[in-house]
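Z., the sequence and structure:
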Amino acid sequence: MKEKIKKLRNYIFFKLYKVLISFEKFRNKGFALDILSPDFIKDPYTTYSTMRSKKPIYYSAPTFLYWVTKMDFVQEMLRDKKFSVDDRKYSIAKRRRRELIKDGREIMLDQFDNPSILKLDPPDHSRIRKLVSYGFTNRYISSLESEIKETINDCLDRTHNKDSFDLIDSLAKPLPAIVIAKMMGLPKEDLTQFQNWSEDLLQEVGGISSNAIQRKQARDAYEELIRYFEKKIIERKDNPGEDFIGKLIQAEEEGDKLNVKEMFGTCLLLLVAGHETTTRLIGNGLYTLFKHPEQFNYLKDNFELIPNAIEEIMRYEPPVHATVRFAYDDIIYDDKKFKKGTPFAISIAGANRDPSANKNPNEFDIKRENIKHVSFGYGPHMCIGAHLARMETKLAFEALFERFPKMELLDNEPEWGRNFIFRGFDHLQIKPN
């Protein structure tokens, strides 16, 4: 009976969504933001461009969000205290708590009230970020270069003598997971489980096709990860060690107010964010280079340009497409009134292709100068692992170009994942030649 009710609810939701799309098209002369559309999944940038040309702050009834695609507005909303990431403060929190209670998700409810830095405003955000940043200094990340190279070579060695291999499964997915796990002092044998939990978890974060089964998998994965980190942290309480988890434990014992639930959230965030974004950056980047063969061939012979190419990839085909902010209080912005708690979808991908920020934004150019993007965030929530992601991607590209200078993309039109927040491929088949 419960399954029938869930199916009926999903059917009603889909029908309502279609009604709202029709209404939006009527109101906007044939245009609507349809995140379920195959055209949007294949190419969201045309939609973002149209939204920006119509209104810099575009209300989408089907998503219940105000979408912001103009670079100046995006940067301001990401840095200004008038906009908040802490959804506990607004009406959405009541619905979320009610939903988690009804679903029997005590662990998730607990973490909702004790979020990671991703969902905290200053001063709590500043306090925890300062602690976490000790494990992400540029000097420390740079010291990992030889280990990262070794990990990349181990991954690519397994493709030896194969007629083809999946770039995602062979390298893009395991590489960041292994690196993050090593930094945190976690056993290598747990990596496959981490990847499974991470993929399941994202089904409820921007998952276009999420259904009741997928939502359950996502929530189960979330709670399993919290239980896992709880066990590891408790086990190491008396002998923390010098890795990232050890530093978190020691900082807590030295008088910092970081509580154990904040530690759980921080560990989960670093594992999932560090894994998923870099996986997509490597996959999106190589795919984009394949689609621009002249630039691909030039880059293979000019490794010194790889760092700039990575910045252009981040701008042109970013792994994270959007994030959310809330109006901290009643405000007037862009000559419009917004009530406290109004949710804004900050379109990272839309801002990156704003022609006021980058000339000819829909052209991919690895030699582009003065590249402007917000793919690692902006302001106080700037990605703390940006240096690590850049290094992993740079070393991965160098190894691929050295080993497989004549590699080819087997499927010219691989299927994009159905997640409008984290954009990337589940599979990317490569012929090494």
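Residues 86 and 119 are 5 Å apart (CA to CA). The chain has one domain: 33-431.

Let me know what you think.
H.
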